[in-house]
Design goal:
heterodimer, A: alpha+beta, Butyryl-CoA Dehydrogenase, subunit A, domain 3, 13 helices, 57% helix, B: alpha+beta, four-stranded antiparallel sheet, 11 helices, 8 strands, 14% strand
Chain lengths: 321, 373
């Protein structure tokens, strides 16, 4: 048994964190989110450094390097990077034989027939679409999606009025089993992003509570506060290990469903507790907690959220109802 | 035992509802920062009925009604989402009635009663939030004893950008005197040395920082004794406990969510129905706790613990409804400005503002359960 990263994995993590220190961070995320923009510079830097293809480049015996890609996505989420990392680094390599053009967005076919906000859709050059038993790759023409105003930390887009996307006609079918593959890797991506995002939200909160003094002592020194933060830390750590295991097994359905069900539930706890314990400053835009916390709620909205992940877990373990 | 209202009270409720029908689209409860001219106009219309002075004694121009009428009024206003109760007619006026001099009553009460002037509460500071007794904004009496000079900073003031006057809690004693060294002042927001700076918040509105740089305030604008503010603000808070967190808001949140679910054909889903049943029971819980606060006040008792319990549950239920809004609303609930998103956004600060849930829990554990520490 070994929970530690090996030297190569550690090197991947350190390398992407060095890049992110230069090209990402909460201040950048705030500026981009205010304008509803995508971080094309960060995307290009990750591309140039080879991270967008890491799952395939580090593959062994035709087995994707899911864990290495997950570590990268987790670090990007921790940095508040405004890029479609999970779709690009985890989902696309599992579905497509060749590298597809980014940014990559993912949606269900229902989100096209009944236009619904989709993360990164307004900036996407490639769109992965999940239908019941099929999956498609579509290259949306510019203007197909229009930006949606949101304060939940990601640029979002919705099918423009008068526009349509019919994946089965204009897209590339991704073959037998692709729908399950897309569903599992998408769910894995959500869990991985949640882990990095929760980690940063908790870290930001703990650091503040170490400094903030009331009643002549730091807020973090109150036992009742410590207990709640401890429970948050446990949920983040458990989410991390469940998710890394699912990534290590390249999105094995039951492992993914368990990781997502747990991590996306933890995301709600982390949102509530980090804001409550940060007090009034936590709700101001000047305090960076929102860079991560708001995203946690957005992640919970995709692919049916916690409820769908739980149903997937039951089905994977005990079979369909 | 009777949880209900008598016929006269019900008639008053009907009159309030009739009045509010004209303000159905005001949305000032959620969006006062964006709708202040309209909200102010509604307060002026309420003043025409003398409702801003509903419970003031008649000798000060009020209607002399009791807390039940006040509860009915502001509960209906909250249900209609028209506005939050104004501080001027509540905390400020009631403190002046109780502790002001004859001259102060003459100067301020009529202007407040008619809705001509409005106040922002300036209590919290960057280093004094939950620990209010630790505040530092200094008020120094001039050598000739005619005025005070205010220096320091307040933080997290709601609506200060729109108000006319500031109700300032300041230190007149030594720093270690804690609550025994505080005094209350009325300060014109337009006075030299006052600066209000916005603190944009995640709900799309703003709180404010208020800076005082050598602001001169006459001794006639100190309400109550020097160093005597702690009991004044405590009593003013006690006066308002039944209207601070009116359950009408929570009931309306639930009804809006139900309407949204039915509009989106989600009302038949058994899982949704189960969740809504739980929320419906919790809304009843807040209504019972809200009325318990009122009943204690009507009986002349101390409603501190009742109010703390009510605040904890009311604000938690607000957030539970908001969580359901997001969980059931899907990605559409993330779009700025649509109804589910607005319900969610407006629940954010409830468990912080007006005394955090943690402070309220301490009140319950100490004063109800008798636990020390």
């Amino acid at each position: 048994m070994d929970f530690d990263l090996n030297e190569d994995q550690q090197a991947v993590l350190e390398s992407v964190e060095r890049l992110l220190a230069q090209h990402a961070g909460p201040a950048r995320a705030v500026a981009l989110n205010r304008a509803g923009d995508y971080d094309h510079d960060l995307h290009a830097a990750l591309e140039a450094a080879g991270f967008n293809q890491i799952a395939r480049d580090l593959a062994r015996d035709d087995t994707l390097a899911g864990l290495e890609a997950a570590l990268t996505v987790e670090a990007i989420a921790r940095s508040g990077g405004v890029v479609a990392a999970a779709a690009q680094m985890l989902v696309a390599p599992a579905l497509c034989e060749r590298t597809i053009e980014g940014p990559v967005a993912i949606c269900t076919v229902g989100e096209l027939t009944q236009p619904t906000p989709v993360r990164f859709a307004a900036h996407a050059r490639s769109l992965l679409v999940l239908d019941d038993g099929d999956a498609y790759l579509v290259s949306p023409a510019p203007g197909t999606f229009e930006p949606v105003r949101t304060s939940f930390g990601y640029p979002m887009g919705r099918l423009s009025e008068g526009a349509s996307v019919e994946p089965d006609r204009e897209g590339q079918a991704l073959g037998a089993g692709a729908a399950d593959t897309l569903r599992n890797w998408w769910r894995l991506g959500l869990a991985v992003e949640a882990v990095g995002t929760m980690d940063a939200a908790l870290g930001h909160t703990v650091e503040y509570l170490r400094q903030r003094r009331q009643f002549g002592r730091t807020i973090g020194s109150f036992q009742a506060v410590q207990h709640r933060l401890s429970l948050c830390a446990i949920e983040v750590e458990a989410s991390r290990w469940l998710t890394r295991e699912a990534a290590f097994h390249n999105a094995q359905p039951e492992a993914v469903a368990a990781a997502a069900a747990y991590a996306l539930q933890a995301a709600d706890t982390l949102f509530t507790e980090t804001h409550q314990l940060s007090g009034a400053i936590g709700f101001t835009c000047e305090f960076d907690l929102h860079v991560w916390s708001m995203r946690l709620l957005a992640l919970r909205q995709e692919l049916g959220g916690v409820g769908a992940a739980r149903r997937a877990l039951v089905e994977a373990r005990w079979g369909a109802a | 035992m009777n949880y209900g209202f008598n016929s006269e009270e019900l008639a008053f409720r009907d009159e309030v509802r009739e009045f509010l029908a004209d303000y159905a689209d005001l949305d000032g409860f959620y969006c006062q920062g964006h709708r202040w001219p309209e909200v102010r106009s509604m307060f002026s219309a309420m003043a025409q009925k003398n409702w801003l002075a509903l419970t003031w004694p008649t000798e000060f121009g009020g209607l002399g009604k009791g807390p039940v009428h006040e509860y009915i009024l502001w509960n209906e206003v909250a249900y209609a989402r028209a506005a939050r109760n104004p501080l001027a007619a509540g905390i400020v006026a009631k403190s002046i009635i109780r502790y002001g001099t004859a001259a102060q009553r003459a100067t301020w009460l009529e202007r407040i009663r008619t809705g001509d002037i409005h106040f922002s509460l300036c209590y919290s500071e960057p280093e004094a939030g939950s620990d209010l007794a630790g505040l530092r904004l200094k008020a120094t009496l001039s050598d000739d004893g005619t005025c005070y000079e205010l220096n320091g900073q307040k933080c997290w003031q709601s609506y200060a950008q729109d108000m006319d006057f500031l109700w300032v809690l300041a230190r007149t004693g030594t720093q270690d005197s804690r609550g025994r060294g505080l005094s209350l002042f009325i300060c014109d927001k337009a006075a030299n040395g006052v600066r209000v700076a916005p603190l944009p918040t995640l709900d799309g509105d703003q709180l404010n920082e208020v800076f005082f740089d050598g602001v001169r305030v006459s001794v006639e604008q100190r309400i109550g004794d020097e160093n005597g503010a702690w009991s004044i603000i405590g009593e003013a808070l006690a006066d308002e406990r039944h209207i601070q967190f009116p359950p009408g808001r929570v009931r309306r949140d639930l009804e809006d969510l139900v309407a949204w679910l039915n509009d989106h054909d989600l009302g038949h889903d058994p899982m949704v129905r189960e969740r809504m049943a739980d929320l419906a029971a919790r809304v009843l819980e807040t209504e019972m706790l809200g009325r318990k606060v009122l009943a204690t006040m009507v009986a002349g008792g101390n409603a501190t613990v009742d109010a703390a319990m009510n605040k904890i549950i009311h604000t938690t239920v607000c957030q539970d409804i908001a969580r359901a809004v997001l969980d059931l609303g899907g990605p559409e609930a993330l779009v700025t400005g649509n109804r589910p998103e607005l319900i969610w956004r407006q629940s954010l600060t409830e468990t912080i503002g007006g005394g955090t849930s943690e402070i309220m829990r301490s009140v319950v554990s100490r004063q109800l359960l008798g636990l020390g520490g």
